[in-house]
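Listing S7. Sequence submitted for prediction.
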Amino acid sequence: MKIGRKVTAAMAGVLAAPLIVVALPSGTAFAHGYVNSPASRQAQCASGTVKDCGAIQWEPQSVEGPKGLQSCHANLSQFAVLSNDSKGWKVTNTGRSVTFNWTFTARHRTRDYDYFVDGRKVATFSGNNQQPPASVSHTVNVGSAGRHKVLAVWNIADTPMAFYSCIDINAS
């Protein structure tokens, strides 16, 4: 009788294991990348420069959505604060030529990187369908002087997804 109970318990464990794995939240192992300098909105939340950001403060690399969005928060409700232009984001003083530095926590083969200034595409850099190193930098001419919101987009090569970062600058 004892053996029968042990077998039953073992079988229940084997059957329950896949359900438990699916139900558990994923950690940062599935995290990806963001612009860390000039400090993107999510980098400001992660560093504590801007307060009351919600979940993005713990996972600045996770702003992932379908390619083609024009959204700081990739249409993810838990990161909606990133699209709030009145949040009090710190503005970085730059020249008209700005170097954007990406940090990657999971490196995917890359189609390209797009940069938009105030909604207008100003640059694309090929990723050559290769896996990037742990960090990548691009120098972008933002055009006119003044305050701008830059949307930087990392387009993944082998999925329909992209990662989004907004950066507030004042170009001189």
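Caption to Listing S7: primary sequence and predicted structure tokens for the chain studied. Residues 16-31 have pLDDT under 50 and may be disordered. The two ends are 82 Å apart (CA to CA).
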